[in-house]
């Protein structure tokens, strides 16, 4: 059972910053892609940001220029730096990594709640 562990969630005021981190229990050099998703109450889970093994990043329009995804090969972590937070960023944030085997295997964390107060 592969378990990713997210951390860094909590209550933050609008306009402030928060950094999420996801610990991966194996070498992230094995992954083809790492990503952060979020799910707000009553809404579907959506992609927030992703980074490929080549370093190509992709961001949801709603977070462009505010959020930054990064990875640390020494620590086997993938982080999400969130700046200029808005109340609409309130959600449970999930980490997902993809490992290409015979087919792509996706591993998820259990999520961390970020609440942005106005």
Descriptive tags:
mainly beta, globular, 118 residues, 53% strand, four-stranded antiparallel sheet, seven-stranded mixed sheet
Characterization of this structure:
The chain has 118 residues and is mainly β. The model has no long low-confidence stretch (mean pLDDT 97). The chain is 0% helix and 53% strand. Strand 5 and strand 6 form a beta hairpin. The strands form 2 sheets. Strands 2, 4, 5, 6, 9, 10 and 11 form a 7-stranded mixed sheet that branches. A 4-stranded antiparallel sheet has the order 1-3-8-7, with no helix packed on it. It is globular, with a radius of gyration of 14 Å. The chain starts with a strand and ends with a strand.
Globular, elongated, flat, extended or rod-shaped: what is the shape?
A: globular
Mean pLDDT: 97
Largest sheet: 7 strands, mixed
Structural class category: mainly beta
Count of helical segments? 0
What percent of residues adopt helix (DSSP H or I)? under 10%
| Residues in β-strands, percent | over 45%
Give the N-terminus to C-terminus distance in angstroms. Answer: 39 Å
- The value of Rg in angstroms is 14 Å
The beta-strand count equals 11
- The poorly predicted ranges are none
> What is the element string, with H for helices and E for strands?
EEEEEEEEEEE
């Amino acid at each position: 059972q592969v378990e990713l562990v997210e951390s860094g969630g909590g209550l933050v005021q609008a306009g402030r910053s928060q950094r999420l981190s996801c610990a991966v229990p194996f070498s992230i050099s094995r992954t083809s892609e790492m990503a952060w998703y979020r799910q707000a109450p009553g809404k579907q889970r959506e992609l927030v940001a992703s980074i490929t093994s080549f370093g190509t990043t992709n961001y949801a329009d709603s977070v462009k220029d505010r959020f930054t995804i990064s990875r640390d090969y020494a620590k086997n972590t993938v982080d999400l730096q969130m700046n200029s937070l808005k109340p609409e960023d309130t959600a449970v944030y999930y980490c997902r990594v993809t490992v290409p085997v015979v087919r792509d295997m996706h591993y998820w964390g259990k999520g961390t709640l970020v609440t942005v107060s106005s």
